[in-house]
Design the sequence.
């Protein structure tokens, strides 16, 4: 059984080929192998478990419908991420009410001690805080900080200006910083 390594996930080419043929057993094995990855991404973007499960289901429907078009098995994990992000954006686009901003720059003297803040929390605590972010903040935060999309790409995905994307990210960081400082009793390092 040929396997390739990608992002600490073993890619089983036989499972992919079985899914491409529409075989139920292959889909079950694929679901068992990649379900936890898909759910972890959905949880990071969703406000709650119910939303995450809805996005998860929509993502797997699309994955199984489109896997026959996957040409490079070594790009599977990236391809899965792309589908999930598309589903998240679609899911929240109709729910987001973001105030448009025509121009946004970081305020002078703004300093963040991110390493100290992040080290003060466990992964589950940080995920819980991210899930509490208002929808627009959470979406932009995840797309930019976690996934690495530029503000231009985010603006195109969710239908806002680049300045609005930057503003939402700044507000998300401020929101998280305030709650993290409160939870961890970390002093503020703003000038």
Sequence:
């Amino acid at each position: 059984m040929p396997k390739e390594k990608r992002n600490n996930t073993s890619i089983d080419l036989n499972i992919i080929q079985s899914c491409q043929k529409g075989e139920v057993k292959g889909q079950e094995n694929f679901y068992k192998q990649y379900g936890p990855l898909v759910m972890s991404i959905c949880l990071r973007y969703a406000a709650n478990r119910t939303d995450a499960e809805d996005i998860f289901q929509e993502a797997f429907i699309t994955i199984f419908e489109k896997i026959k078009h996957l040409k490079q098995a070594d790009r599977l994990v990236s391809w899965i991420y792309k589908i999930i992000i598309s589903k998240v954006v679609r899911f929240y686009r109709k729910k987001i009410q973001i105030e448009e901003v025509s121009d946004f720059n970081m305020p002078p003297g703004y300093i963040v001690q991110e390493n100290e803040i992040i080290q003060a929390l466990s992964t589950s605590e940080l995920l819980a805080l991210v899930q509490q972010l208002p929808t627009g903040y959470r979406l932009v935060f995840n797309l930019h900080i976690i996934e690495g999309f530029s503000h231009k790409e985010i603006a195109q995905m969710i239908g806002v200006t680049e300045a609005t994307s930057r503003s939402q990210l700044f507000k998300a960081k401020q929101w998280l910083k305030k709650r993290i400082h409160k939870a961890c009793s970390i002093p503020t390092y703003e000038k």
Remarks:
- The chain has two domains: 3-93, 114-184.
- The longest helix spans residues 162-184.
